[in-house]
Structures are given as C-alpha cells and as structure tokens.
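I am writing to request your help with a piece of structural work I have in hand. Here, with my thanks, is the record as I have it:
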Amino acid sequence: MEDNFFERVYAIAKQIPEGKVTSYGAIAKALGTARSARMVGWAMNASHNRQDIPAHRVVNRKGLLSGKHHFEGTNLMQQLLENEGIKVVDNKIIDFEKFFWEPKQITLF
C-alpha cells in the first residue's frame, strides 16, 4: 500500500505549477486521506532521487520549509523556490497565501 500511496502523492506533486507551493496536508486531503499529512511528508522525503517530483514545492501548513534538511546543501530548497519567484525569509515563505496552490481531489487508483 505504501508504494501505491507514494505514487498517488507524486501524481499530485507533479501538478504543482512552477512558482506555486502546496502543503503536505493539502495533498493528503486531495487524496481523501486528510489525516495522512505525515505520510505525504515521508513520500516527499523518499522522492529526492527523482528529478520529476518537485518536492521543493511542498511545505508545511504555515509555509515553513520543514523538509529542507532532506535536500542536498544547506539552502537548496530555498534556492529552488526563489528561482521560481517565491521569497523565503527564515525558512518561511513570504506571502504564503499568494503562492499557495490547492490540489483538486483526485482518485487515481
């Protein structure tokens, strides 16, 4: 089940537009498993060897870069976001609501 769940998470993460972010909880809610935000986090942490998953665009519900220590280098997650026009100060996205992308509820499998 875990692999299937992770693939469903990745299917949503791939839809996040450049210059936008979403949260672990928003992805969990879109999957119909609203209480599984932590598992979404595990899926994102496991995706770092995949170039097709924009894991840097998934943050916590307050806009904090809570997964940044899973990226190579000290500020890679922040640099990737800033390259897309998202300003980050003290590991938090400025104007988080402006950049937030709400995933649509999906049923994939």
Summary: The CA atoms of residues 29 and 105 lie 7 Å apart.
